[in-house]
């Protein structure tokens, strides 16, 4: 089968990897930009012993998706840097709220005291869930904010759930689907009448999420996954930066005669009973099947001519812009180590959060921070398109105030990531089902994978590619 992959980000490269494993050659990956990796980008300053990451920097080794990624990392022979659960970056997570840095509880004991920004012990929110009845009419979906407020109270929704959603997808919890992002919790409540009640009951049932076989690892569990379990990794990075993952994937594919074409954008897709014709640089390229890892809004115009309804469905998935500011300060300046801090939207500040990179990984005598701004609130704060210097000054002033740092950063980078994260608004699961059902109904030789459909994390986009490739008929 001649197959083409559109997009050379992590999901597209993963699709290439799994297509090669399933079908062999011929196979070509088309990437519109001059590099692979998509939003994963690392700047390794070896001369000064620090790394700037403008995209993700850590991966969680949890469950089937985590095991799947570790199998890939193992195959590529990449060096990992584990962060164990006992590490300060795994234990300490903070909020900046009510004018102060607040440590989130990291043990059951923390449920019984009153920790700012909360005004009452957190165990009361747990009790609320146990005594609150679920809605009599079963819900198909609702916002994560509404769900959290209903089950645990407004304070939890404002100061725990909302900032967490900022960290996951730079989104507004009042709009994001609980059924898509927290399906397990939502279904427990709908089935058993409460989140905790459902969690306790389901513990006595077979926990399928811990079964890493699932048809993917029939022969053996990945060694790195077994190691992660044994050593209790909370997360891990890659030596030299996370961009080494897409770089290694490209090298692996190239060595096996997979053609990765950079600066080659697909302009149109024309489907027929015999396959697909792709318009690449004004030339018609025929293939039997296309796997698209493109953002939904980029795939939409390619199919609009023949399938305007599918195009409209793809365009119904919104995206947000995020500003990422990397900064390095000489010396160890943080008064409190940890993974970083999140800023609850109720604080009405332009920051989504700050990651303490030099706490997560050894960066010598440097303090390295990554500031994230914008997201759902990008236009509100940055609609007049400020200059990189204005953005840096704004990020620096907030960091200095929040973390009590007096110095100015010695090195910095400002990145505007345009339409980088899809928003899983209420009804998203149904939206994705409709897109895939349309493709199936019209028997289009097209598969769609990536963050728009199956989750924003690195594990999600890699497993998304694998699932979609394995669903392609062998004949």
From TrEMBL:
<dbReference type="GO" id="GO:0006782">
    <property type="term" value="P:protoporphyrinogen IX biosynthetic process"/>
</dbReference>
<protein>
    <recommendedName>
        <fullName>Protoporphyrinogen oxidase</fullName>
        <ecNumber>1.3.3.4</ecNumber>
    </recommendedName>
</protein>
<keyword id="KW-0627">Porphyrin biosynthesis</keyword>
<dbReference type="InterPro" id="IPR004572">
    <property type="entry name" value="Protoporphyrinogen_oxidase"/>
</dbReference>
<dbReference type="InterPro" id="IPR050464">
    <property type="entry name" value="Zeta_carotene_desat/Oxidored"/>
</dbReference>
<keyword id="KW-0560">Oxidoreductase</keyword>
<keyword id="KW-0285">Flavoprotein</keyword>
<dbReference type="GO" id="GO:0005743">
    <property type="term" value="C:mitochondrial inner membrane"/>
</dbReference>
<dbReference type="InterPro" id="IPR036188">
    <property type="entry name" value="FAD/NAD-bd_sf"/>
</dbReference>
<keyword id="KW-0274">FAD</keyword>
<comment type="similarity">
    <text>Belongs to the protoporphyrinogen/coproporphyrinogen oxidase family. Protoporphyrinogen oxidase subfamily.</text>
</comment>
<comment type="pathway">
    <text>Porphyrin-containing compound metabolism; protoporphyrin-IX biosynthesis; protoporphyrin-IX from protoporphyrinogen-IX: step 1/1.</text>
</comment>
<feature type="domain" description="Amine oxidase">
    <location>
        <begin position="10"/>
        <end position="472"/>
    </location>
</feature>
<dbReference type="InterPro" id="IPR002937">
    <property type="entry name" value="Amino_oxidase"/>
</dbReference>
<comment type="function">
    <text>Catalyzes the 6-electron oxidation of protoporphyrinogen-IX to form protoporphyrin-IX.</text>
</comment>
<keyword id="KW-0350">Heme biosynthesis</keyword>
<dbReference type="GO" id="GO:0004729">
    <property type="term" value="F:oxygen-dependent protoporphyrinogen oxidase activity"/>
</dbReference>
<dbReference type="Pfam" id="PF01593">
    <property type="entry name" value="Amino_oxidase"/>
</dbReference>
């Amino acid at each position: 089968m001649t197959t083409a992959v559109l997009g050379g980000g992590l999901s597209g490269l993963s699709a290439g990897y799994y297509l090669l494993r399933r079908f062999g050659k011929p196979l070509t990956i088309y990437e519109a930009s001059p590099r692979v990796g998509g939003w994963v980008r690392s700047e390794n300053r070896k001369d000064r012993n620090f790394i700037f990451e403008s995209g993700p920097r850590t991966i969680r080794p949890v469950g089937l998706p985590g095991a799947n990624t570790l199998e890939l990392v193992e195959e590529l022979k990449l060096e990992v840097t584990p962060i164990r659960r006992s590490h300060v970056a795994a234990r300490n997570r903070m909020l900046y709220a009510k004018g102060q840095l607040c440590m989130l509880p990291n043990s059951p004991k923390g449920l019984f005291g009153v920790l700012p920004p909360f005004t009452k012990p957190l165990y009361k929110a747990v009790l609320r869930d146990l005594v609150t009845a679920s809605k009599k009419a079963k819900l198909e979906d609702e916002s994560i904010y509404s769900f959290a407020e209903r089950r645990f109270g407004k304070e939890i929704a404002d100061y725990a759930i909302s900032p967490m959603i900022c960290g996951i997808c730079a989104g507004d919890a009042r709009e994001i689907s609980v059924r898509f992002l927290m399906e397990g919790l939502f279904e427990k409540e709908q089935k058993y009448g409460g989140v905790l009640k459902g969690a306790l009951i389901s513990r006595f049932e077979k926990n399928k999420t811990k079964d890493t076989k699932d048809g993917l690892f029939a022969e053996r569990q990945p060694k790195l996954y077994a190691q992660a379990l044994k050593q209790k990794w909370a997360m891990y990075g890659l030596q030299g930066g996370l961009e080494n993952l897409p770089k290694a994937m490209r090298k692996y594919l190239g060595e096996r005669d997979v053609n990765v074409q950079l600066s080659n954008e697909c302009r149109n897709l024309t489907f027929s009973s015999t396959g697909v014709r792709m318009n690449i640089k004004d030339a018609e390229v025929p293939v039997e099947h296309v796997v698209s890892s493109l953002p939904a809004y980029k795939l939409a115009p390619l199919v609009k001519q023949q399938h305007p309804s599918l195009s409209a469905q793809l365009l119904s998935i919104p995206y947000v812009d995020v500003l990422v500011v990397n900064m390095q300060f000489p010396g160890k300046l943080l008064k409190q180590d940890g993974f970083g801090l999140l800023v609850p939207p109720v604080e009405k500040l332009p920051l989504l959060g700050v990651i303490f990179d030099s706490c997560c990984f050894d960066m010598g005598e440097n303090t390295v921070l990554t500031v994230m701004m914008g997201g759902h609130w990008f236009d509100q704060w940055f609609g007049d398109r400020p200059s990189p210097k204005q953005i840096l000054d704004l990020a620096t002033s907030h960091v200095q105030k929040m973390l009590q740092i007096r110095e100015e950063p010695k090195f910095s980078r400002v990145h505007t990531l345009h339409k980088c994260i899809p928003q899983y608004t209420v009804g998203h699961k149904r939206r994705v089902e409709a897109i895939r059902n349309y493709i199936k109904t019209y028997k289009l030789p097209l598969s769609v994978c990536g963050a728009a459909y199956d989750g924003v994390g690195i594990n999600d986009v890699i497993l998304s590619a694998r699932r979609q490739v394995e669903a392609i008929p062998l004949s």
